[in-house]
Structures are given as structure tokens and as C-alpha cells.
């Protein structure tokens, strides 16, 4: 019996040997799907690894990878590992300043870029002081007239590698064979919600053990199909598209572009799927928009059968008892509504789906499970190699994140903060021993920064909010902004919400409208507008937002513990919150402190008696230029409900 693989390259060698003719990667290019088997991938990786050795890549050096999801960039990660070096995928939409910091921080000596845009940003970021000595590009379009000193085509590096097999083959085998479980597999940067991104060092042991445990948890096999469309710099994409893919041997499919994702998703029909809540929210919004344009009969059928799906669909999915009549009606709905809708979304074959990163609205979660999609929640972070908790089949709920993943221990500190210990716990923060020590103690326990508690009876973990964000209102009530924000974002018209109130008497909010949803509504109601700013301040839009906030307040008022978090005043912002402006992270998480400081004048007006506020804001345009926009925002007073009386007080 052969020894268990101890690195990603070792897993590749096993797959090439045991399932060499099975598809491992597909990519759609120029409208045609191309496929590579595990044996073919092994050859592509070896050629690139030999070429990297020829370029002088040394053991332990860092190589940055930037671009959209493409098989060749995933192969590059494994080729870098075969050469004994460390891959560092970065966000392709990162600004030059962010890339410059990461290049300098990790000391990258080479970079592999997807296209001309990435080459330009890497060169601008590198400047004269960077250690970066060579850039390899995948797509040659637009690069023919560039100075190719230190710039080489991906295919050319592979050709050089193939020619150098006799000269460098022994050295490559030696470096690959030297890899062990304790060696670094990849370095991934955190999203930088509260400051500079940190380089999270993950070992082969972290990746392989986590991939093994999570794959067995959901009974994944080499027959799965996944679609790789999330940022390659995100730990979730790495564990799904590399870790689990190489452990189980399933096929990873790369869409042609972000614009063709939905069409490509339908063509592939993934069996295993992950998306953050925002993707599911956007898909649901698009469904609802299309239904608004449907005939009266189609609308009636849709709403009738979807109401039935919400009532019995999750129970049928979980194998619970449902009456024969309800099952018959659900099968009829499957034929008329659910099946065609799942096919349109590309979800017909999914048997395991996950969402994570932020809490998902319960109504959105129940919508998909009502369709018969086995959508579940997990809780994790980069430092855990993703998995901290998962939801077992038949124990899926919208208000918890499940139980501890296999091999994970969890404890709750006195202040409510969640701690965990597992085989996936990161090695260290690169060049940051202070942060490493403050996050991970000597016994391997890691502080998540999130506040939560275990439910009695079920043993499921519930996450309240970020520990640093959970606070007190001036009156002593609990302040949990994310709880309120998630309720607000359930409405298709609201893309983003940011709630403030820590240490204050009342809570206030900034809202972003969803331009797609609200723009469609405006078109159907013959409401003209010239810009996002103009539409966001339209009286009927503000009236609609008041209705949404009032509905959320009624829901919050029913919770005795959080009733003080009702929104008293709010504004609809004149611009969308944007990662390029520093208001969101690259994973689309709100940077609350930055937003509070940037829009300090608006926040001050919300806590005054003002009815409107004039503001000037610096923005970043798509080409990187800076500019300023001005606006006068109407401040809205919200309908606030009497707080529910806690059970204990009512008894007294």
C-alpha cells in the first residue's frame, strides 16, 4: 500500500496515475469548452516547473499569481510548489497600491499574470525598489510591443522547460520529493477589514487534512463538477478548486469571463457549488425582476407554488414527514416552476451547496432550499483553512452555522468570542510574529474575532456579530449592527447597509440601493433618471426605503435582546460603496470604521435635527483617476416600534 500523499504535487502524481484519463479541468474560450485530463495537467505543470527552474527560481522564494480563474493559473500554483517555492495568489481587481504592498511584503521574485492589465499593474506596483525580477504572462494580447526584458510568455516558459528536461529534471524531482506536510503550500492575504492585509501561511498539512475531512463530511467523489469563478486569492477558492479537487480528483470548470458566468453555469450544471450570500441575493433579485415582467398567469403560478415550496420544500429535502397531498403538489410545482427555475440558474444537478463569508438572510436561504437545493452554511476563515463549522444534512437551519467540522474543537470565551483549534490552523502570519501571537496561543487556539454561542440541545453554533462590533447602546442595550444589516439586505432593492449606534442613544444607517433592481422598477414605472445619485434620491425610492426600514424595525422590536437596534434615521448614499474607494474589502466586506470616518459629516447630520446634508466625496474611477462628487442627501426618519418586553420582566 502506497504512502498517503504529503503535498499537492504528490496528489497530482497520484491522480495522474490512478485517474489519468478523467477530466480534471475545463475552460470555455471563444465559446468552446476545452478539457484537460489529470495526465495532461501533470505534463503542463512539469513543463512550467522546469521553465521556472530555468529562470532561476529558488526554494522558498515567493511567486505572485494574478488573474481571473483559468486552468493555467491553477497549474502555475502547483508548478511553483513543485519547484519548492511558494505561490501567492492576489486579487486581480486590487489597486496598484495594494499590489505594491503585497509584492514588497512577501518579497516576490516572480509573478504570473493573466493578461495585459495584470502585467501593467504588476509593473507599476513593482517600481524600482521591488525584488520582482520576472513577469510571466498568459494572454499575449496587447503585449507584443512591450519591452520583454524580464517579461516572458507562459507558453514560452513551458517550451523552455520541456527542452531543459534532461538538464533540470533530476533537480525538479529532488525538490518535489523533498516536500513534506510541514512545508508551506500557499500564502494567502487576508481581506484587511481592519487594517493592512496579513499574509496567512498555510502548510501542506493544513490543506490536505482540511480537504480530506471536508470532502468526507459531504461525501464528495471524483465525479463532482465545480465552477471556479471566485477570486483565486480567496482561501475558499483555493480549498475548493485546489485542495478538495486534488484530494478527491473531481473536475474544476473555469467560465469564459464574469459576463458569461450564468450561461456557463447552466452548461456545466455543477454538482458541488459555493457562493457568498451576495451572489445568491443577486440571483434572487434577477429572478424577481424577471417575474415582474411576466404575464399575470405566470406570476400567479410562480407565487402560488413558491409559497408551497417555502412551506414543505425544506422538510422534503431533509427527509421529514410530509403529507401525500403536499408531496404531490410539490412534484407538480417541480414540473411547472422549480425545475425550470433551477435549470435557468444552473442549479439542476447540485447535491451540495454552501454559502459563507457573511450571514445570509433567512428568507433568501429558505427560498433556495424550498426549490430542493441542498444549500447549507459553513463558518470559517483564512486562518482555519476555511472550515470551522458545517451543517450536516438534515440539520440545516438559516439561524445557525452548524456544528464543529471534523477535527475542529470550539470554545466560547467569557466575553462571548469564539475560539477554535484544528488541523487547519495556519502556521503563522508572514513577517508578523506579534499578530501571530495575539491570534494563536501556544496551545494552538485561535481567536476568531467573532461573538457567538452554542444552542442548548442542538449544539449548533450561532454567530451574533464581529466581537469588536458588538457593543452597547447608551441605554445599556446590545448593539449588533450586522444582525440589522443582514435583515435590511434581504430586500432586493437594498444592496448594502451600514448601521451605527455603539455608545449612542439610537441607531442610524447608511443604505445603498441595488441599481439593477431599482433601475428596473423605475423603468417599469416610467421614472426617468440620469445617474445612480439621481435615482437614489428620488422621492418614491426614498418612500420605498422607508417602508423597508419600518418592516425591519418591526422584526427587530420583537426580539427583546436586540430591540434597541431599531433604525431611527437613515440616508440613502449618493454612491455605491466600493473596494477601490477603501469602503469595502476585496471580498466585499464592509469596513465600518473607514465608512464612518469618510462620511463623518453625514453621520453627524443623522444624529442632529437636520433634514438634509450637503456632502463632497472623493471617488476612484475605473481607469484609476481620482475625482470628487457632491450631493445633497435627504435624511429620513424611520418608523420605530415599541420594544418587546423580555419574558422575565413580563412574568414579574
Notes on the protein architecture:
- The protein is α/β, with parallel strands linked by helices and 652 residues long.
- The protein has 22 helices and 29 strands.
- The strands form eight sheets. The protein has a five-stranded parallel β-sheet with strand order 4-3-5-6-7, with helices on both faces. A five-stranded mixed β-sheet has the order 12-13-14-15-16.
- Helix 2 (38-54) crosses helix 7 (165-177) and helix 8 packs across helix 9 (235-248).
- The longest helix is centred in the middle third of the chain and has 22 residues, at 296-317.
- It is globular.
- Residues 646-652 have low confidence and may be disordered.
Short description:
The chain is of the alpha/beta class and 652 residues long.
Oligomeric grouping of the chains: single chain
Helical residues, percent: 25-40%
Strand order of the largest sheet: 4-3-5-6-7
The outline comes out as globular
Residue-averaged pLDDT: 93
How many H/I helices?
A: 22
> Beta-strand level of the residues, as a percent range?
15-25%
Distance between the termini: 69 Å
The structural class is alpha/beta
Biggest beta sheet summary: 5 strands, parallel
Detail the poorly predicted runs: 646-652
Write down how many β-strands occur, each being a DSSP E stretch of 2 or more residues: 29
Task: From the alpha carbons, calculate the radius of gyration and give it in angstroms.
Answer: 26 Å
